[in-house]
Amino acid sequence: MNKRTGEVNDFTVHSATSAAHGLWFRGGGFTTMGYAAHNALADADLSVSAYKLFHKMCALQNRKDHGLVLVESQVKFAEQVGMSQASVSRALKQLATEGFIYPDGRNWRLRPDFVFNGNGVAQGQAVQSIPGGTPDPYAGGRADLKIVDGGDQGQQGDGDQN
Questions:
Q1: What are the tens digits of pLDDT across the range 18-36?
Q2: Cα(140)–Cα(142) distance, integer angstroms
Q3: Helix (H) or strand (E) holding 109
Q4: Which residues lie closer than 8 Å to 105 by C-beta, 6 or more apart?
Q5: Residue ranges for the chain with pLDDT beneath 50
Q6: Which pLDDT does position 87 carry in this prediction?
Q7: 107 CB contacts (<8 Å, ≥6 apart)?
Q8: Which of 23, 43, 44, 95 could cross-link with 101 by S-S, CB 3.0 to 4.6 Å?
Q9: What does the angle CA 104 – CA 86 – CA 117 come to, to the nearest 5 degrees?
C-alpha cells in the first residue's frame, strides 16, 4: 500500500516453473538483499513505478561494477525498462531521494550496501565509494512496530506445568 495515496497493489509472484526446477535461477546472475534491505524497500514511500524500476535496475546492473546501471539516454532507458519517460524520471527521483540509488555521471548506481552481487572484496570497495550525503535507506524505520524481547525459551504453553 502506498502510504501517501492509499493505493493498493498486488505484488503476488507467480512462477511458471515446476517445483522440480525451482532450484535453478533462470537467466544466470542474481542479486541478493538482506532482510533489513527488504524491510527498508517495503517501508519506503515509493510509487509502483519506482518499485518496478528498482527491480528492473537490479536486473540490468553491471555485476562486474557493483550496481552500475548504464543509461545511454533517458528515452532509451525508458524503452529498455518498458516504462514511459515521465514515469522513469519520477521513479529515479523517488529512488534517489530515498537513498536506494545515486547518480554516477549520466548513469545510476544501486546502493552497494543494499544489494549484493557475490564478490565480498569488490562489494566492500563499492560501499566505501558511496558519495557523502547520499540518503540512507535504512534510516527510516517503522514507527508503528515495537521490538520486544522474545523467543520460546523458558515460555510455557497453557497446558505446561513445571
A1: 444 444 444 455 567 777 8
A2: 7
A3: strand 107-110
A4: none
A5: 11-27, 145, 155, 157-162
A6: 94
A7: 68, 69, 70, 71
A8: 95
A9: 40
